[in-house]
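Hello Y.,

Per our agreement to keep a running log of every chain we model this quarter, I'm adding this entry. I've kept the format consistent with earlier entries: sequence first, then predicted structure.
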Amino acid sequence: MRKALKEYIYYLKINRNLSKNTIVAYENDISEYITFMERNYKVQSLNEVKSEYLKNYLQKLVRDKTAKSSEKRKLSAINSFTRYLLKEGRINADQVSQVSSPKIDKRIPTVLTRSEVESIIKVSKGDKPLEMRNYAMMEILYGSGLRISELTALNIEDIHLNVNLVNLFGKGSKERIVPLNNETVKALKDYILNARLFLNPKDRSAVFINRNGERISRVGVFKIIKKLALEAGIKKEISPHTFRHTFATHLLEGGADIMAVKELLGHEDVQTTEIYTNVSKKVIFDKYDEIEDNDNIAKQGDKNNV
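Predicted structure for the entry above:
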């Protein structure tokens, strides 16, 4: 079984063009599954796996309080592995398809209001090299909806400031071209021309670098955002991905076509993008409730003054 897993991981690397993180996740999830089968049912071959064994494995995940999203990911990895083994003639039957995938509650992601975005961008501004870098990062995160992995992997050659465009390489190294607004272009120009070299970049290709001259990390960006949010007086729990959620929500609130937003975000399926329509509706309803509450308070005040 371990040999089959190694062959499958090799297949993913060569044929599927998946990201390194995705391949590691597949390997870990399937290895955990194989270990469970070996320890609990003494199986020597995946042909011996029965659907009830898999159901018991999923029940173990529930007992371990594994997140529904992680359960779904693990089952998806196992399903993909099983289909590969069937195709290669390594097993005779697909037991995984008989097991239902766990249902996931669609959680509405945290988004920032326009005033909150403005507050964070305002406190990020400054004349020092690190401040100019932070300002450029906030502008491009919100202005173009980048994933954190896309931000940290950004290279100088990917940015085309003369035509307001950036080349991004998303999940599975899939390329897409995203527009940059004028404010983002200005922030990037100021940072690249007047600040970046003062940080003594060790990686000459990296756009965003840390105080040690190295390509900035995901953790580094997360810490910067936490610090800026605190300075801006924002109490919401936010992360780099919050800016991506906010970017999509604000576009839809402004009347953007959902298919256009899907392309900008680099989503494979429009259903992934549709969650932002729910966010947008919630924001509108919350604003309506707030206005209605204020009107009621004002009316009550008028009555008291009569």
